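Deliverable D4.2, example record:
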Amino acid sequence: MTLFHRLSSALAIGVLASSCASVPATGGPSYGAVAAFYDANTARAALPVCLAALPPEQLAQQRFVRVPYHHVRRLLVGVAALPPGASVVLGQRVELWPQDCAAGALSRITRIFPPVLLPTLPAVHGQTQ
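Output generated by the structure prediction step:
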């Protein structure tokens, strides 16, 4: 087997092995927008795995959010506790250090970006809004 074939095989095995991981080991943060909130009022059946094991008291004391984020071409989902005193709205962007919720680990939010205000366009002459 030539060196080219060996390197090609090693590369293919590496690609296949890395595609099995549910959370990428990027070593850095990801960015996404808050898509849902979880709290004590959320039905147990609707809670993700990493929150379903928590006692109701902890769900009542903290707010948790669902944050979809992109990693290369894949859309992954992180679940994180909001930092104490933090307030976010749906669609607000956050910096997330992803963890594998299916393995019981919560992601960590380290930064909350200001909400984006969409500009309003002026009325066109002769038209009303």
